[in-house]
Specification:
This protein is an alpha+beta fold. 38% of the residues lie in helices and 19% in strands. The strands form 3 sheets. A 4-stranded mixed β-sheet has the order 4-5-7-6. It has a 3-stranded antiparallel β-sheet with strand order 1-3-2. Strands 8-9 form a two-stranded antiparallel sheet. A hairpin with a 2-residue loop joins strand 6 and strand 7. Helix 4 (62-68) packs antiparallel against helix 5 (128-137) and helix 8 runs antiparallel to helix 9 (181-192). It is elongated. The mean pLDDT is 94.
């Protein structure tokens, strides 16, 4: 269970020093610090379930979501999330993992993510099309068709079979909202109807 310092102070208000009680619980492993003023009572909670709670509003995306869907071969150990209008990157590190947060354009943020109902906490994660668009949006502009395709399928090592399975119209609609060079390249790639080897 996620619990705040304020809730704990109220819960242990009969103690002479509620804060000392909290510190003792942390030392005994009964409370796991998430960030300043916030704790988790179950050390076995899956790290990804906590990403939306640590900083928000946010949803899991970028490399973590691409790995989650098997779109890239690497196992991503950082919980990468998208935010909106925060204007700066944010990072937290705790016993459950490393969490990073960065903005996507305001027009894009409300689209393309799903709420996954899990126990004990539901979480938000980008769908496959949105995760790809988010990742491309934060990269430096890649100029030229060949360079873009090489990055997509060799640099990023995006799975071509999964790429071919994506909803092309949905992908184009999302990509058009970013107004970024890499997303324009993606739209052109889709319009050509080809992958890297075609």
């Amino acid at each position: 269970m996620i619990i705040s310092t304020e809730q704990l102070v109220m819960k242990y208000s009969e103690y002479k020093s509620p804060h000392h009680k909290i510190q003792s619980m942390v030392k005994r492993g009964e409370l796991v610090p998430l960030k300043r003023g916030l704790y988790e009572t179950d050390r076995h909670t899956a790290g990804y379930m906590l990403a939306n709670v640590l900083y928000g509003p946010s949803y899991l995306s970028f490399e973590y979501a691409l790995s989650y869907y098997g779109m890239i071969p690497e196992r991503v150990t950082v919980y990468t999330s998208a935010t909106c209008s925060k204007r700066r990157k944010k990072e937290f590190q705790n016993q459950f993992g490393v969490y990073t947060y960065q903005d996507v354009p305001t027009a894009v943020y409300p689209h393309g993510y799903t709420r996954i109902e899990t126990d004990p906490y539901p979480y938000l994660i980008a769908d496959r099309e949105k995760a790809l668009c988010d990742e491309l949006s934060i990269l430096s502009p890649i100029r030229g068709r060949k360079a873009f395709e090489e990055y997509l399928f060799e640099g990023m090592r995006l799975d071509e079979d999964i790429f071919d399975e994506l909803d092309s119209e949905r992908l184009k609609t999302l990509a058009g909202l970013y107004h970024r060079t890499n997303l324009e390249q993606l739209i052109r790639l889709i319009d050509r109807g080809g992958g890297y080897n075609e």
